[in-house]
C-alpha cells in the first residue's frame, strides 16, 4: 500500500478515534508519528504516546499542522470543537472527515466556511480489529478527497459509498448494529447454558456459529434465506426454533430497533 504522505489529526480520541489511529498504523496507511490524537486529559493517551503517536490537548495547533482532520467527538461536543479550530482552517489544505452522528457536511461548512472540504464517514467499533463496516458520503467534496477517505477506511474494513441523506440510517444499521448482533450472540449463549453447556463453552459456540453464518454470506454471496433453507428440514428442529422466535417477534423487534436507532441518531446534534 502507498503510505499517506501528510499529517492526520484525530480530534476527540475515544473508542472510534483511537481505534482508527491504531488501524491506520497497523495497516501501513500512516506511521504513528504522522497521526496526532487529542483529548482534554492527556493521561488517557499515554499508551499511544509510548507507541509513537503525537498526543495533544490543543485542537487548534494540531489542526494547523494537519492535512486530514478527523472530527471524532460526540455530536453534542461538535459545535464547541468547531469554534476552537475555525481560525486554524486552511481551505486549500485541509480535508475534514466527520464521524459525528446526525451532523451534515453543510452543518460543518456553515461553521468552518462554505468551501471547506468535508466528507462524512460512519465506521463501527470493529474498526479496532480492521473489520469495520464504514459508510462514506459527501455532498460537495472533490472526488479525489472522497477517494482518499475511501482508501483510508478500506485499510480498516469494508466501505460503502452512500447518499448523505442515508447517513443516520447507516449509523443505526452499522454502528448501533454492532450492539444488536452482540446482544443476539449473548442471547444465544444464554440459551446454550439453559440446555446444558457451561457459560464459557456456550459463548464460544455461539460466537463461532455467528461468525460462520456471516462468512457464509460474505464468501458465498448468497441470501440469508438460501442458507436458512439448507438447515431447515420438514418437521425438523431448526424450523421449529425459528418459528418460535418469529412468533415472539424476533425479526420485527430487530427491525423496530433499527428504525428507532435511526430516528434517535438524527436527533443527537443540535445546530446551536
Plain-language structure description:
GO terms for molecular function: pyrroline-5-carboxylate reductase activity. By secondary structure, the chain is an alpha/beta fold. The protein is built from twelve helices and eight strands. The protein has helices at residues 15-27, 46-50, 59-65, 75-85, 105-112, 143-154, 167-175, 177-194, 199-220, 224-231, 237-247, 250-265, and strands at 8-11, 35-38, 54-56, 68-71, 95-98, 117-122, 132-137, 157-161. Strands 3-2-1-4-5-6-7-8 form an eight-stranded mixed sheet, with helices on both faces. Strand 1, helix 1 (15-27) and strand 2 (35-38) form a beta-alpha-beta unit. The chain is elongated, with a radius of gyration of 21 Å.
The secondary structure category is alpha/beta
Give the number of DSSP strands. Answer: 8
Spans of at least 5 consecutive residues whose pLDDT stays below 50 are: none
Oligomer: single chain
Give the helix level as a range of percent: 40-55%
Question: Going across the major beta sheet, what is the strand order?
Answer: 3-2-1-4-5-6-7-8
What's the CATH H-level superfamily name of the largest domain? Answer: NAD(P)-binding Rossmann-like Domain
Counting structural domains, the number is 2
Rounded to the nearest angstrom, the radius of gyration is 21 Å
Distance between the termini: 41 Å
The CATH C-level name of the largest domain is Alpha Beta
Q: How many DSSP helices?
A: 12
Strand content: 5-15%
> Average pLDDT across residues?
95
Order of helices and strands: EHEHEHEHEHEEHEHHHHHH
Biggest sheet character: 8 strands, mixed
The name of the CATH topology of the largest domain is: Rossmann fold
Domain Pyrroline-5-carboxylate reductase dimerisation: 164-268
Function: Catalyzes the reduction of 1-pyrroline-5-carboxylate (PCA) to L-proline.
GO molecular function: pyrroline-5-carboxylate reductase activity
Protein name: Pyrroline-5-carboxylate reductase
